[in-house]
Amino acid sequence: MDKYKYIIWDWNGTLLDDISASLRSVNDMLEKRGMAPIDKVRYRDCVGVPIRVFYDKVFDMSREDYNVIIKEYNEGYLNHLPECSLSDGAEELLERFAQERKKQVIVSSSNNDQLMKNVEKYGVMQWFDSVLGAADYMADSKIDRAVSYLKAHNAGENEVLVIGDLAHDAMLAKEINADCILLSTGHEKPERLASSGARIVDSLREII
Q1: For residue range 142-198, what is the model confidence (pLDDT) as tens digits?
Q2: Between the CA atoms of 148, 150, 156 and 158, what dihedral angle is there, to the nearest 10 degrees?
Q3: Which of 137, 133, 156 is CA-nearest to residue 146?
Q4: How many helices (H) and strands (E) does the chain have?
Q5: What is the pTM of this model?
Q6: Which residue pairs, CB below 8 angstroms and at least 24 apart, start in 93-98?
Q7: Residue 63: which region, alpha, beta or left (left: phi > 0; alpha: psi -120 to 50)?
Q8: CA–CA separation, 62 vs 68, rounded Å?
Q9: Long-range contacts of 181-184 (CB under 8 A, 24+ apart)
Q10: How far apart are CA 97 and CA 99, in angstroms?
Q11: Using 50, 70 and 90 to split pLDDT, how confident is the model at 137?
Q12: Phi and psi (nearest 5°) for 52?
């Protein structure tokens, strides 16, 4: 781990164990439409980037306004978020990396304003050099933001580690020639993560 000078973190499902808030919000939406709820297995099987992939699988999007769907989901997610906590081992790992003088950055598909509020809410803002969220709520690719940050800091190819919970995080790592560790307990099913070529862990404590 000594070679890494930059740690690019994902937020949702990686540092924040929030899959329950996401699943409950989706099931609230399905119930409102008279549709059957989905379980965690189905949820994780449908998740993808961009998030439109998920909604196309779970809802009849020919009858829905995508902007309304996104707004409704986000409101439900925030309602259920107080039930969630940081992932096991997150604070210890953040502190350890800080002690080793690594620059830590959150690069997330979440809306930037909401992301900043949540990072502050969970008391971990002090460990990050930068928090880079999205300008909207569409949960599209975050690769460009990571590339821009690393170029601005002249980061070397062998100096970066990406830690996330989606196959998209592994794609990000490949784009910037970084190493990648994926957490198997997040928003995407482990079978899909395994095909990404990244190292898979079942807990952030395994990295410690």
Answers
A1: 889 999 999 999 998 789 999 999 999 999 999 999 999 999 999 999 999 999 999
A2: -110
A3: 133
A4: 9, 8
A5: 0.95
A6: 93/204, 93/205, 93/207, 93/208, 94/15, 94/124, 94/127, 95/127, 96/208, 97/7, 97/127, 98/127
A7: alpha
A8: 13
A9: 181/207, 183/13, 183/14, 183/87
A10: 5
A11: low
A12: -55, -30
Secondary structure of residue 106 in the 3-state scheme: strand
Query: Reading across the β-sheet that carries 179-183, which strands appear in turn?
Result: 130-134, 103-111, 6-9, 160-164, 179-183, 199-201
- Tokens 């008279």 — which residue? 34
From CA 155, how far away is CA 5, in angstroms rounded? 8
Rounded mean pLDDT of the chain? 94
The tokens for 89 are 């081992």
Read off the amino acid at residue 90.
A
Residues in the chain: 208
Helices 167-175 and 143-152 cross at an angle (nearest 10°) of 40
How far apart, in Å, are the Cα atoms of 194 and each of 26, 50, 189, 208?
A: 26, 20, 9, 21
**Which two tokens mark 84?**
């969630």
